[in-house]
């Protein structure tokens, strides 16, 4: 059950976040190989966040998943999520960071 948590300094007021949630859910589901009904997405906007010493649009995301996410899946997640954020929120892919965490059981996942 992957959970993607995105924080961005972009103001999400007036943004159609429903379509972004749908696109991210579909992408994570396909890349990780888990049905969409098991994918959780959180997105926080207007977060106090700088990257490279400035406040231009940027995002930090973390994905936690039960089961292994190998390096090939990590690369696909970074590229795909970054592209979605660039297209929908005008966040350059060079200003997007994804941290990937894998847990081995639901017992450990509940402690994160």
TrEMBL record:
GO annotations of cellular component type: extracellular space
Record-level Gene Ontology MF annotations: phenylpyruvate tautomerase activity
A Pfam family this chain is assigned to: MIF
Matching InterPro entries: Macrophage_inhib_fac (IPR001398), Tautomerase/MIF_sf (IPR014347)
PANTHER family (alphabetical): D-DOPACHROME DECARBOXYLASE, LS1-LIKE PROTEIN
Family indicated by similarity: Belongs to the MIF family.
Protein name, as recorded: Macrophage migration inhibitory factor
Organism, as annotated: Dorcoceras hygrometricum
């Amino acid at each position: 059950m992957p959970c993607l948590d995105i924080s961005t300094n972009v103001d999400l007021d007036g943004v159609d976040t429903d379509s972004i949630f749908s696109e991210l859910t579909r992408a994570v589901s396909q890349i990780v190989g888990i049905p969409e009904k098991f994918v959780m997405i959180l997105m926080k906007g207007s977060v106090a966040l700088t990257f490279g010493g400035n406040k231009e649009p940027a995002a930090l995301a973390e994905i936690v998943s039960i089961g292994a996410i190998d390096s090939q899946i990590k690369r696909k997640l970074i590229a795909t999520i970054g592209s979605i954020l660039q297209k929908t929120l005008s966040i350059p892919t060079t200003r997007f960071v994804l941290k990937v965490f894998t847990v081995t059981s639901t017992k450990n996942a509940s402690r994160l």
